[in-house]
Amino acid sequence: MKELQVPEFATYEEEADFWDNLDTADFMADDDQWFRFETLHKRAIRVAILPEIAEELRQKAQAQGVSIETLVNTLLSEHVRESTLSH
């Protein structure tokens, strides 16, 4: 088992890209236990999404070749930015 070296990130997007593209198999002990990586950016929260919306998001993310998390964060970021600019 390797030790994971987590770099410092300049942006949330850099961090999301790092975690989206990380294969954690090499960093897992073979003891059937789940693990958690601590990060500097502790902004992630869980949000319930209606199943039909989640399916649409999953399909769009797959078509764009990104994770659903990346797609949702991008869409929310754009929406918040647009809302801020229009007020």
What does this structure look like?
This protein has helices at residues 12-20, 51-64, 68-86. By secondary structure, it is mainly alpha-helical. It has one domain (12-86). Helix 2 packs across helix 3. The longest helix is centred in the last third of the chain and has 19 residues, at 68-86. The protein starts with 11 loop residues before the first helix and ends with a helix.
SSE order and pairing:
Layout: H1 12-20, H2 51-64, H3 68-86
Helix pairs in contact: 2-3
Mean model confidence by pLDDT: 81
Low-confidence runs of at least 5 consecutive residues? none
The major sheet is characterized as:
none
Overall radius of gyration = 16 Å
Please state the overall shape, judged from the principal axes of the Cα atoms.
globular
Oligomeric state of the chains present here: single chain
Our count of helices gives 3
| Structure class | mainly alpha
* CA-CA gap between termini: 51 Å
Q: Which features characterize this protein?
A:
globular; mainly alpha; 87 residues
Concise account of the structure shown:
By secondary structure, the protein is mostly helical. It has helices spanning 12-20, 51-64, 68-86. Helix 2 (51-64) packs across helix 3.
